[in-house]
Amino acid sequence: MKRGIYHILIILQILLTGSCKKEIDMDYHDIEPITVIEGQLSQNGVEVRITMTTPMDEPMDTKLLTDATVVLSNLTTGEEEYLNPDDRGVFKSDRPGIAGNEYELQVNRGGKRYTSRCTMPDAPELLALEFNWIKMPYDHVAVLQVTFTENAGETGECYWVRLYRNGEAYMWNLVTDIYASDGIINDVFMTSRKNLDEEDDATALHDGDIVSASVSPISRKMYDYLEAVSSDSNGPQLFEGDFCLGYFLATSVVESSVIFHPDEIAIY
């Protein structure tokens, strides 16, 4: 086991958590629904989802909207492509993005226009996924270390690390190259307890589960946006033109998977 993970695990072992509860009366004001655009371009193509915000006192509406014109432009080559929605309502194309090129996503809907630009960075290399059991005060916990390279010659690099459990979204972290050592970054996730009777279904891992990791280099603005979203805030504005929420991300994604076999994991 790498030295970096050893020190992280020791720190995790001594963490104690506490909580307090306080009732807060919130007075929400009705506001008009806001357009939300979520677009991602990678070497696998582009997908764009358009939704609307939902009032706080109403059930979440996740219906995808298709009454829009969506255009992806490669500003480096001058090419542009009109995206069409599939049967799920996702605007998409299989044309791959090119690292080093600058892209613009433009969405026109209801007489309003939203645009966002992003340069696609080079891909890092995902070196390893490794599970270890760590003894916590309440139980053993499966810790997953995701090891990948930072982009050489760059400083201030940010990364979005996402985990999937059997193909479904599971957990995610944000990390910067400040944590790199000799060009290598080790990101750590605390996943499932060993005693599944005490584990929540949202985080429980069972023997044979496939855990996949994807690592995406992102801009500092995207990093700040995701950090804000994780704190229940809208974050910085990533689109120009009319006001909307959401993001457009051009990134080179690297992925790898590991099968969870609890009896084969080392204990520390």
> For the report, how would you describe the main beta sheet?
9 strands, mixed
List the helices and strands in order. Answer: HEEEEEEEEEEEEEHEEEE
Number of H- or I-type helical stretches: 2
Radius of gyration: 21 Å
Which structural class do you get from the secondary structure elements?
mainly beta
Q: How large is the share of residues in beta strands?
A: 35-45%
Strand order of the largest sheet: 14-7-6-3-4-5-2-1-15
Mean pLDDT: 88
Q: What spatial form do the alpha-carbon principal axes imply?
A: globular
Question: Spans of 5+ residues with little confidence (pLDDT < 50)?
Answer: 1-29
Please give the share of residues in helix. Answer: under 10%
Terminus-to-terminus distance: 10 Å
Number of strands: 17
